[in-house]
Give the backbone structure.
Amino acid sequence: MTAPLIQVRDLKVHFPVRRGLLGRPRGWVRAVDGVDFDVARGETLGVVGESGCGKSTLGRALLQLVDITHGSVRFDGQELVGLSPRRVRPLRRRMQLVFQDPFASLNPRMTVRDILSEPFVIHGLSRGAERELHGLLDVLGLPKDALERFPHEFSGGQRQRIGIARAIALRPELVVADEPLSALDVSIQAQIVNLLVELQRDRGLTYVFIAHDLKVVEYLSTRVAVMYLGRIVELAPARRLSQGARHPYTRALLSAVPVPDPTHPRTRQVLPGEPPSPMSPPGGCAFHPRCPQATERCRRESPPLYPVASGHSVACFLAEGDALGSTQASSLAGGSGVLAQPSSPG
Ligand code: SF4
């Protein structure tokens, strides 16, 4: 069994809400509020949820781009939380981010050559970089004269290819892709998805793929984590999730995914209300104000993640009766190496 590339334990990222830059905090936004998971080498962990559920903050926390409030993030066995910027820097070349918006994430005053050279310069790897740049153009399907041009001369899809080229320039092991398709036309999205799949196959990349489109996430991912109000409420192999989702929130998300077969239409389940503010999440199960199956217990207690099958965990009391005993769970975890640990309640 190989060790996971990423191990996350009880991770919390809380942002202070202040009046003015120097004011005292008036409250805290619990963007990520106690999550646990592993990511195996070479797999794709999809992370889905509505806007504001904390998925982008989680992605940035993995790369130490936001201050961690509590918990542990291990990369290839090394603890990242608490490392000084000087000690994080050499690790950064091994883990990279693809941004959501290819229009905003590329400096309009830099040529593509400057954009793609920057990672080599930052990490003192300029020797031989020129050959690498031409190789990147080939791999990413960009025109040969792209290096001397500026971002505004490219289409949205090409700009995202440039963003991906920048992310993989230093041959990282982990790429966190934060909604890389959401700013693109549907026809272009398919090309970028195929490109990501090819790159993973050819370079052995590990992805954390963040998106709100469950269909794309299911297609790309080995496993999928569903987030709600800063927590993972369900974690399952992608195929299993589409057929056997257990959490009422996951089921509602799945019911909104269009089905191509008109003879088998899905009944869309519309959840009442909006997600509560992460500044004042409800007590008990955070989903209870919108859950059609909530009980009195759900208002009082927060469910842990119950392991219900290999690699499949659900934070819902409805799954409690099917939860595997700790011996079964740990033997399955030993088999897959990726079973989530229960998150701490409350
Ligand atoms: Fe719904 Fe209760 Fe399950 Fe939460 S624990 S998802 S409120 S049934």
Remarks:
- The first strand starts at residue 6 and ends at 18.
- The radius of gyration is 21 Å.
- Residues 6-259+267-275+327-333 form a domain with the Rossmann fold fold (CATH 3.40.50.300).
- The pocket of iron/sulfur cluster is lined by residues 247-248, 285, 287-288, 291, 293-294, 298, 303, 316-318 (CB under 6 Å).
